[in-house]
Amino acid sequence: MSQHHGSHPGHSHGEGHGTQHTEAHTDAVDPHGDGHSGGHRHGHGGHHHDGTHLDWAELGPLLERQAEVAGSAYADAAAWLGTLAPVPGVRRILDVGSGPGVVTSLLAEAFPGAEAVAVDGSPALLARARTYAEARGLGARVSTLHAELPEAIGSLGSADIIWAGNSMHHMGDQGAALAAFAELLHPGGLMVLVEGGLPLRHLPWHIGIGRPGLEARLDAAQADWFGEMRADLPGAKDEPDDWRALLAGAGLTPAGTRTFLTDIPAPVSPVVRELAVSHYTRLRDGVAARLDADDKATLDRLLDPADRASLHHRGDLFHLTARTVHTARKG
Predict the structure, then answer these.
(1) Which of 32, 105, 165, 302 has its CA 20 to 30 A from that of 171?
(2) Residue 179: domain span
(3) Is residue 61 reached through a cis peptide bond, with omega within 30 degrees of 0 on the bond before it?
(4) Model pTM?
(5) Residue 257 phi/psi, 5° resolution?
(6) Which CATH number fits the domain that encloses residue 238?
(7) To which H or E segment does residue 253 belong?
(8) Closest by alpha carbon to 203, among 52, 309, 92?
């Protein structure tokens, strides 16, 4: 599981958990990512959907920072889960597509009686998850599990909570994957999907260079890319993103949906600025072929440190996104 994604266009993305994954499933790797890893086969060395090689050891720090930027939203989501699942009764949590494990540790903090397991296909990211947990005094309760999903779902063991942060949409047959996860849940256990929300925004509509509305056109290019990615997944099924219906189809009872905001206004910190540069760099590499010449030129200016209109210098840069969390209970 190593492929950072967040949701699709019109859905949540951002940095991540992480991010989502997550991917963690990171906007730096996939326009919809969030510091989590995606759920399909990538593990050893990892390849992006466009065939480019992903060095997870190199991307790990970026994914971790993305996840931390979204940390308050994820902490709020974890606290909400504590109102749906009795905190003292939660003994084992699976964080599916964990990326560098930022959310794994957040879940361990929210459920102090639980073992939280970071599940990913990238050994490099799992090593970061262990280090991250140990640095926060959680090493005794955070463990890691290398698994390629969806093939290895049955090997993950039972759980009280399964958190899939922007990783479900990396599984070709999402309904079948959800049914397999449902088999792992204890009675009363929760399936948690982070899918959807609002696209990441960094810039106002008019940025003073190029044609206004750049981010909306980037969303459209990402939407096309995302559709091709989904269609190319092994066993891909063309099904609507009706998450309540998919959860119900897996034999689970929907238990509530909430959306959590990450709102960092201008002026941003150097870390948030760095994440914006990484996000736009990946966009240029991933969707530039889908843009017209003017938008490509604007992207190049935004990424040129010597240009005063670039992301490196702009005073109007911000970070705004929202992630939607869907829950369902095993009867």
Answers:
(1) 105
(2) 1-26+36-200+229-265+320-331
(3) no
(4) 0.86
(5) -135, 135
(6) 3.40.50.150
(7) strand 252-264
(8) 309
Helix-strand-coil percent breakdown of the chain, rounded to 5?
Answer: 40, 20, 40
Contact status, residue 266 vs residue 318, Cβ threshold 8 Å? yes
User: How do the pLDDT tens digits run along the chain, 331 residues long?
Assistant: 433 333 333 333 333 333 333 333 344 344 445 555 554 333 323 334 333 446 766 777 778 888 889 989 999 999 999 999 999 999 999 999 999 999 999 999 999 999 999 999 999 999 999 999 999 999 999 999 999 999 999 999 999 999 999 999 999 999 999 999 999 999 999 999 999 999 999 999 999 999 999 999 999 999 999 999 999 999 999 999 999 999 999 999 999 999 999 999 999 999 999 999 999 998 999 999 999 999 999 999 999 999 999 999 999 999 999 999 999 999 8
Residue whose C-alpha is closest to residue 118's, from 104, 137, 134: 104
Residue 215 token pair: 């981010």
> Is 273 part of any domain?
no
Encoded tokens for 225: 């890319």
Specify if 212 maps to a domain: no
Q: Give 59-109 as a 3 state SS string.
A: HHHHHHHHHHHCHHHHHHHHHHHHHHCCHHHCCEEEEECCCCCHHHHHHHH
Number of domains forming the structure of the chain: 1
User: Which residue blocks in 111-169 are alpha helix, DSSP H?
Assistant: 123-135
Give the up-direction half-sphere exposure of residue 287: CA atoms within 13 A in the CB hemisphere.
28
Q: Residue 319 corresponds to which tokens in the numbers above?
A: 């970070």
Q: What is the side-by-side order of every strand in the sheet holding 142-146?
A: 142-146, 115-120, 92-96, 159-165, 185-201, 319-330, 252-264
With respect to residue 244, please indicate whether it lies within any of the assigned structural domains: yes
Strand partners, 53: 47
Determine, yes or no, domain membership for 205: no
